[in-house]
Protein backbone atom coordinates (compact mmCIF):
# COMPACT_ATOMS: atom_id res chain seq x y z
CA UNK A 1 0.00 0.00 0.00
CA UNK A 2 1.42 3.42 -0.90
CA UNK A 3 2.56 5.54 2.03
CA UNK A 4 1.06 8.75 0.69
CA UNK A 5 -2.47 7.58 1.44
CA UNK A 6 -3.73 7.87 -2.15
CA UNK A 7 -4.63 4.21 -2.32
CA UNK A 8 -6.50 4.40 0.98
CA UNK A 9 -8.37 7.51 -0.21
CA UNK A 10 -9.38 5.77 -3.42
CA UNK A 11 -10.59 2.73 -1.49
CA UNK A 12 -12.64 4.84 0.94
CA UNK A 13 -14.02 6.86 -1.95
CA UNK A 14 -15.25 3.62 -3.55
CA UNK A 15 -16.66 2.40 -0.23
CA UNK A 16 -18.64 5.63 0.18
CA UNK A 17 -19.91 5.40 -3.41
CA UNK A 18 -21.08 1.82 -2.85
CA UNK A 19 -22.73 2.79 0.43
CA UNK A 20 -24.51 5.69 -1.27
CA UNK A 21 -25.89 3.43 -3.96
CA UNK A 22 -26.83 0.57 -1.66
CA UNK A 23 -28.11 2.48 1.31
CA UNK A 24 -29.03 5.83 -0.23
CA UNK A 25 -26.21 7.58 1.60
CA UNK A 26 -24.22 10.61 0.46
CA UNK A 27 -21.06 12.12 1.89
CA UNK A 28 -21.60 15.76 2.79
CA UNK A 29 -18.74 17.75 4.41
CA UNK A 30 -17.24 14.58 5.82
CA UNK A 31 -20.50 13.36 7.38
CA UNK A 32 -22.64 10.57 6.02
CA UNK A 33 -26.26 11.69 5.79
CA UNK A 34 -29.15 9.52 4.82
CA UNK A 35 -31.09 10.93 1.89
CA UNK A 36 -34.10 8.67 2.22
CA UNK A 37 -36.59 9.03 5.04
CA UNK A 38 -39.41 6.51 5.40
CA UNK A 39 -42.64 7.08 7.33
CA UNK A 40 -45.39 4.53 7.84
CA UNK A 41 -48.96 5.26 9.02
CA UNK A 42 -51.26 2.34 9.69
CA UNK A 43 -48.76 -0.03 8.07
CA UNK A 44 -46.26 -2.22 9.86
CA UNK A 45 -42.87 -1.58 8.20
CA UNK A 46 -41.17 -4.78 7.17
CA UNK A 47 -37.64 -5.23 5.85
CA UNK A 48 -39.10 -6.37 2.51
CA UNK A 49 -41.16 -3.20 2.09
CA UNK A 50 -38.28 -0.98 3.17
CA UNK A 51 -35.90 -2.77 0.77
CA UNK A 52 -38.34 -2.37 -2.13
CA UNK A 53 -38.58 1.38 -1.46
CA UNK A 54 -34.78 1.67 -1.16
CA UNK A 55 -34.31 -0.22 -4.45
CA UNK A 56 -36.73 2.08 -6.25
CA UNK A 57 -35.07 5.17 -4.74
CA UNK A 58 -31.63 3.94 -5.84
CA UNK A 59 -32.96 3.82 -9.41
CA UNK A 60 -34.12 7.44 -9.08
CA UNK A 61 -30.66 8.43 -7.85
CA UNK A 62 -29.15 7.02 -11.03
CA UNK A 63 -31.23 9.49 -13.07
CA UNK A 64 -29.97 12.61 -11.32
CA UNK A 65 -27.24 13.59 -8.90
CA UNK A 66 -29.35 16.63 -7.97
CA UNK A 67 -31.46 14.77 -5.42
CA UNK A 68 -31.03 16.41 -2.03
CA UNK A 69 -33.59 14.43 -0.01
CA UNK A 70 -36.49 12.03 -0.40
CA UNK A 71 -39.32 11.43 2.05
CA UNK A 72 -41.61 8.48 1.32
CA UNK A 73 -44.83 8.15 3.31
CA UNK A 74 -46.79 4.90 3.19
CA UNK A 75 -50.32 5.24 4.50
CA UNK A 76 -53.14 2.76 5.01
CA UNK A 77 -56.12 4.97 5.82
CA UNK A 78 -58.90 3.50 7.87
CA UNK A 79 -61.84 3.49 5.50
CA UNK A 80 -64.51 1.13 6.67
CA UNK A 81 -66.60 1.28 3.50
CA UNK A 82 -63.93 -0.55 1.48
CA UNK A 83 -63.55 -4.27 1.47
CA UNK A 84 -59.75 -4.11 1.44
CA UNK A 85 -57.22 -1.51 2.51
CA UNK A 86 -56.16 0.82 -0.27
CA UNK A 87 -52.61 2.06 0.29
CA UNK A 88 -51.36 5.51 -0.56
CA UNK A 89 -47.70 6.24 -1.19
CA UNK A 90 -46.52 9.85 -1.17
CA UNK A 91 -43.05 10.81 -2.36
CA UNK A 92 -41.55 14.22 -1.58
CA UNK A 93 -38.38 14.46 -3.65
CA UNK A 94 -36.24 17.53 -2.96
CA UNK A 95 -33.95 18.44 -5.85
CA UNK A 96 -31.39 21.23 -6.23
CA UNK A 97 -33.79 23.80 -7.65
CA UNK A 98 -37.21 22.66 -6.47
CA UNK A 99 -39.35 19.84 -5.25
CA UNK A 100 -41.15 16.97 -6.93
CA UNK A 101 -44.22 15.69 -5.10
CA UNK A 102 -46.01 12.48 -6.00
CA UNK A 103 -49.18 11.61 -4.19
CA UNK A 104 -52.68 11.06 -5.36
CA UNK A 105 -55.76 9.62 -3.79
CA UNK A 106 -56.22 6.12 -5.20
CA UNK A 107 -59.73 5.87 -3.75
CA UNK A 108 -61.05 3.98 -6.75
CA UNK A 109 -57.88 2.15 -7.75
CA UNK A 110 -58.29 -1.29 -6.24
CA UNK A 111 -54.89 -2.32 -7.63
CA UNK A 112 -53.51 -0.32 -4.69
CA UNK A 113 -54.84 -2.92 -2.29
CA UNK A 114 -51.41 -4.44 -2.96
CA UNK A 115 -48.79 -2.28 -1.27
CA UNK A 116 -46.10 -3.28 -3.76
CA UNK A 117 -48.27 -2.07 -6.66
CA UNK A 118 -48.85 1.25 -4.88
CA UNK A 119 -45.08 1.63 -4.35
CA UNK A 120 -44.36 0.75 -7.99
CA UNK A 121 -46.93 3.21 -9.33
CA UNK A 122 -45.74 6.07 -7.11
CA UNK A 123 -42.09 5.57 -8.07
CA UNK A 124 -42.99 5.27 -11.76
CA UNK A 125 -44.63 8.70 -11.58
CA UNK A 126 -41.65 10.08 -9.63
CA UNK A 127 -39.28 8.70 -12.28
CA UNK A 128 -41.20 10.38 -15.11
CA UNK A 129 -41.33 13.70 -13.25
CA UNK A 130 -37.62 13.50 -12.39
CA UNK A 131 -36.78 12.77 -16.03
CA UNK A 132 -38.78 15.87 -17.04
CA UNK A 133 -36.94 17.92 -14.41
CA UNK A 134 -33.54 16.69 -15.66
CA UNK A 135 -34.46 17.51 -19.26
CA UNK A 136 -35.49 21.04 -18.26
CA UNK A 137 -32.27 21.54 -16.27
CA UNK A 138 -30.21 20.45 -19.29
CA UNK A 139 -32.24 22.60 -21.66
CA UNK A 140 -33.41 19.55 -23.63
CA UNK A 141 -37.01 20.75 -23.73
CA UNK A 142 -38.60 20.69 -27.16
CA UNK A 143 -39.47 24.08 -28.59
CA UNK A 144 -42.52 24.01 -30.83
CA UNK A 145 -42.51 26.14 -33.94
CA UNK A 146 -45.16 28.78 -34.22
CA UNK A 147 -47.61 28.15 -37.07
CA UNK A 148 -46.99 30.34 -40.10
CA UNK A 149 -49.36 33.26 -40.29
CA UNK A 150 -51.35 33.72 -43.45
Which SSEs are present, and which pair or pack?
Elements: H1 6-23, E1 25-28, E2 31-34, E3 36-41, H2 47-63, E4 67-75, E5 88-95, E6 98-102, H3 115-138
Parallel strand pairs: 3-4
Antiparallel strand pairs: 1-2, 4-5, 5-6
What can you tell me about this protein's structure?
- The protein is of the alpha+beta class.
- Helix content is 39%, strand content 24%.
- It is built from 3 helices and 6 strands.
- α2 (47-63) runs parallel beside α3.
Quick summary:
This protein is an alpha+beta fold.
Count of all domains: 2
β-strand percent reads 15-25%
CATH class of the largest domain: Alpha Beta
Overall pLDDT level: 77
- Please work out how many helical segments DSSP would assign: 3
- Proportion in helices: 25-40%
CATH topology description of the largest domain:
Double Stranded RNA Binding Domain
* CA distance, first residue to last residue: 75 Å
Uncertain ranges:
1-5, 27-32
The whole-angstrom Rg is 20 Å
Count the E strands.
6
List keywords for this structure.
disordered N terminus, Double Stranded RNA Binding Domain, single chain, four-stranded mixed sheet, alpha+beta, 150 residues, two-stranded antiparallel ribbon
